[in-house]
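Q: Hi! Curious about what Phage holin family protein looks like structurally. Here's the sequence.
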Amino acid sequence: MKFLIKMILSAIAVLVLAEILPGVKVDSYVSALIVAVLLAVLNAVLKPILVILTLPVTIVTLGLFLLVINAAIILVADHFVSGFGVNGWLWALIFSVLLSIFQSILYSILKKDKS
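A: Let's find out. The predicted structure is below.
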């Protein structure tokens, strides 16, 4: 149940960011939900592999290269979901940073409600 609520909150965050950012588009609520689920899967499967492969670069850049990995994951999701579009690396980077911030806020609200 908690996973489903997190996916719905992530889909809401994707929709809000698509309205705010001109370089990001989402066609429907279903597309936003698919993007949220796909990002969760990619972050669970692909991101640890990329982090291990790029560990030296990540250490040299003091972790800032993780932003590039997040943007790459957003672009992979863009490739697989037809109703979701991101116009380039810069918009993917901005989208990933803002999505992380929105998800942190929404998840903290979710934790406060359970208390």
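A: A fun detail: Residues 89-114 form the longest helix (26 residues).
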